[in-house]
Amino acid sequence: PVAIMLGQDFTEAQRDALVRDLGLDQPFWVQFGEFVGNAVQGQFGLSYRLSRPVAELIGERAPATLELAFCAAALALIIGVPMGVYTGLYRHSWLSRFFLTFSLIGVSLPTFFTGLVLSYVFYFLLGWAPSPLGRLDPMFSPPPQVSGFYLIDAALAGDASLWWASFKQLILPTLTMAIFVLAPIARMTRASMLSVLGSIHLALQREDR
Fold first, then answer.
1. From 45's CA, which of 20, 84, 100, 143 has a CA 20 to 30 Å away?
2. For the purposes of burial, counting CB atoms within 10 Å of the CB of 136, is it exposed (0-12), middle (13-18) or buried (19 or more)?
3. Burial state string for 10-37 with b = 16 or more CB within 10 A and e = fewer than 16
4. Chain-wide mean pLDDT for the chain?
5. Cα distance between residue 61 and residue 79, in whole Å
């Protein structure tokens, strides 16, 4: 952190002074205790690169993260629940086996690897997806902040092109997270379906007796 803040040309005196100011000359357990104490109060210090409060930076970026999480969760539910129902109803079909294999692969692969593969295929090879450079294409400016959610703020601003650019930028990250999340949803839904079907089967057997 000291080298980042001072740059390439600095003297030992400047380095030692900054180390003392940051408390980096204290034992590790003292530094950690001070950090935890400040974090409990919502104080995370200053960003080494931007020289701005970290809590302020987190607050600015949290809505975009929540927007991505909500979209991924919605997509995972839309795909995962029907997938689990189908695999529970038609356990021995080839499509059911394909869904189970897909869900197993989805939950096994780390999201960063899935994201890299999707970016490579749909951006570098096919050119269908926008450049994976952030929440918004560099050609566009963020919408006036109302909720912090780009899709909502772009809609409130009445800017259709900005809304579409924000939506396109969400597709690959949303798909990446949804693939990882839908696997356990599908498996839990399938287990519930099998349990319900088993209960129905037992109830029918008792009635026949």
1. 143
2. buried
3. eeeeeeeebeeebeeeeeeeeeeeeeee
4. 81
5. 28
Give the Cα separation of 99 and 79 in Å (integer): 11
pTM: 0.68
CB-CB contact of 151 with 166 (8 Å): yes
Question: What is the per-residue pLDDT for 142?
Answer: 78
Report d(CA 141, CA 153) in Å as an integer: 12
In sign, the C-alpha dihedral spanning 159, 165, 170, 171 is: positive
Mean pLDDT along residues 29-49: 80
* Confidence grade of residue 138 (pLDDT, cut at 50, 70, 90): confident
Phi, psi of 141 (to 5 degrees): -100, 145
Contact 22, 2 (CB under 8 A): yes
- SS3 string of the chain? CHHHHHCCCCCHHHHHHHHHHHCCCCCHHHHHHHHHHHHHCCCCCECCCCCCEHHHHHHHHHHHHHHHHHHHHHHHHHHHHHHHHHHHHCCCCHHHHHHHHHHHHHHHCCHHHHHHHHHHHHHHHCCCCCCCCCCCCCCCCCCCCCCCCHHHHHHHHCCHHHHHHHHHHHHHHHHHHHHHHHHHHHHHHHHHHHHHHHHHHHHHHHHHC
